[in-house]
DUF2489 domain-containing protein (Marinomonas vulgaris), 122 residues
Amino acid sequence: MLELLVSIGSLFVVLVGLMVFFVRHQSKVPYYRLTQGQCVRLLRKALQGNLPEHEWHAFIGMSMRDSEALENLREECIFIDEYHVKGTQLVAGRLCMIFDKPGRQKLERLLDEWQHTSDYLA
């Protein structure tokens, strides 16, 4: 019976310790931040066929907490990723994204929209 109480007590101490650790360090969790100019460059690379796969997946995979407009762009790119990615191709030793024609058209529309927004805000 004593061993059971010691085990439960030890487990409780470990769980409280983990909770304290995560509460103290939650603000230090990194998140993805992009500027509008970086988004324009990302869209240009996508249209040129030299957007590395890892950059694309990092962009669409992490939410943008500091900008609703960038989050909306990311969500549109998620749609493009789901329905218009043909695969990848090797460019200069890196796997780069390939989009079908409707996907490229959507990316062109987004680039045009964001390029003008970026130029306006600059």
